[in-house]
Amino acid sequence: MSERLYSIYIVASRSRTIYIGVTGDLHRRVFEHKWKERDGFTEHYNCDRLVWLEHYQEIAKAIAREKQLKRWSRGKKVTLIERMNPAWVDLSEGWFEYEPADFKRATDRILS
């Protein structure tokens, strides 16, 4: 039996607005951010690129870490991201068959 992993993650917009979250299903949660499946901060600010993550086996530790990071200054959060991902590339690139922007471009061409 495999143990469940809990992920603390940061998604960002192109303008580097950031959102910190915790989930037991990172793949599903990133999909929701990309496709704007839930109303809220990430939808409003287009935070749809996974730029940082950590994994924990215990949900209590994951939640504690999420709360810790949310209390940090923006500068400290940026430093954390840039240690792992200096170019802020989308770490979820290739996880899905296509990205929302690609889908929109393709359907716009079909409808034109």
Description:
With 112 residues, this protein is of the alpha+beta class. The chain has one domain: GIY-YIG endonuclease (3-Layer(aba) Sandwich), CATH 3.40.1440. The protein is built from 5 helices and 3 strands. Strands 2-1-3 form a 3-stranded antiparallel sheet, sandwiched between helices.
Write the layout of secondary structure elements.
Blueprint: E1 6-12, E2 18-23, H1 26-34, H2 41-44, E3 49-56, H3 59-71, H4 74-84, H5 100-111
Antiparallel strand pairs: 1-2, 1-3
Q: Mean pLDDT, nearest integer?
A: 89
Low-confidence stretches: none
Oligomer: single chain
Q: Kindly state the percentage of residues in helix.
A: 40-55%
First-residue to last-residue Cα separation:
51 Å
Rg, rounded, reads: 15 Å
Instruction: Give the strand tally.
Output: 3
Secondary-structure element pattern, one letter each: EEHHEHHH
- Strand order in the sheet with the most strands: 2-1-3
- Number of distinct helices: 5
The CATH topology comes to GIY-YIG endonuclease
How many separate domains make up the residues? 1
Q: CATH homologous superfamily, by name?
A: GIY-YIG endonuclease
How much strand? Answer: 15-25%
**Global outline:** globular
Class by SSE composition: alpha+beta
The assigned CATH architecture is 3-Layer(aba) Sandwich
What's the CATH class label? Alpha Beta
Q: Major sheet, described briefly?
A: 3 strands, antiparallel
